Amino acid sequence: MCTLLAAQSTAGPVLGSNSDNPYLVGSRVLASTEGAHPFIGTEVTTHRAAEAVPWNSVMTRGLNARGVAFTYSFVPASKSESNGYRKLVDRRGTRDALGQAASAEELVSLLQQRASRLNDGNYLIADGKGVVVVTINGQRSTRRTIEPGQNIACTNSWFAGQEPDDEAWVGESFSRERLGQAAVVQSTPLLEVQDVRQALHSALAQNDDQEDANSQEARTVDAHGKDSGTISSEIIVPAEGTLWWCYGWPSGTSRGYESFIRDSWGEYLPFQVSKVDHTGLLTTEDGTITLYGTKVLAA
User: Is the pTM of this model over 0.85?
Assistant: First the structure.
């Protein structure tokens, strides 16, 4: 589960996301120079079959040296599009596309070309000029360009106006509750990175705390479900070449009822794509910053 935001800030388009997964799933930041354009990205990793997720070992957020960025939220393909076909996902697909793209439009094209081999769901794509949403549903992909100055939110339902809600799935009701919370920010000015950070914190509404405690899936944007919740959070500023990353809950603290207590940072650290000079890990799965990571952090 994930909550995604796209905002028009004083620095241009900004992407924000909370990555929600089972707590025993790992998350880490990597850097790569394997393509035409160096990039920073994040990937989810799991080594236990019980916590397997379709996006395991797939880069689901990223920013390259040309100022092209994306983030992603999973939605299962509708039966009308999948026809019972189970995708063989190219786990390097998003990495290869980001490493090649010189603009948001080029990344849109590359992802749409790879639709049959990429995870289904919503892809928010941005550069210094604007934001595009691409949805991939089975073998089909669609796109929508976001109007200048418009803030948007996505969760784990098809992006509004892009796909029919022809069937519910296990995460649908929780996804819609989080979307209702996130949608509040669409009419709120998000002019600075701090504003986006606050939106990803998403103050709990009355009773949300107890609802989270009683459910396996989280109902809140800063997700604290019993067995799954926010394992990392990102804010990407393409015009500045910065990917801000927070290990664990953005709020930084557990509420005591989670089945696994993650030692969350509670703050975002800025990784600068201009400092990437080779392929390697910037953080480990337990939130430790590597030596290379310390060199890529913005001064």
Answer: yes
